[in-house]
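Justification of computing resources. Each target in the renewal requires a structure prediction run like the one illustrated here; the chain below, 165 residues long, is used simply to show the kind of job we budget for.
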Amino acid sequence: MARTKPLQQGEAMPDVTLTGAGNQPVRLRDLLGQKVLVVYFYPRDDSPGCTVQACGLRDQYEDFVAAGAEVVGISGDSAASHQGFAARHRLPFVLLSDERGEAREAFGVAPSFLGLLPGRVTFVVDRQGIVRDSFESQIRVGEHVRRSLELVRKLSQGATPAAAK
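Resulting structure tokens:
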């Protein structure tokens, strides 16, 4: 049964395998362990809002890494499209392809704007695979970056789940 809302704080990240660079399979859970994951779902490579969001994450990427996190972007675009998008905007983080929408469904990322656009949701997932926060907004793209970095920094300082929110 499909989720009707995004994963919430305290829920386990689903075990999904997506297509990465070179069309290689990437199991999202395999990225857990040593780092917190910032998993962001976005509508489309090279669209205005998605480019602003990706470049915002790029510009803060070293801050995410310093705080012990890895950033992973997911959209329905192909791995080849992601490769071009990453090259054009010098994106240092992982982009994964969810062409069949299975990860979107597992994470509960529903379409927005009358179902015309894929949703935009960012999840912060701790090292154990537990969602610590989810933020959904199609238009407040900068808030996705600010909010997730703030939480990652709190988690790196050993904040408890309630205090980290």
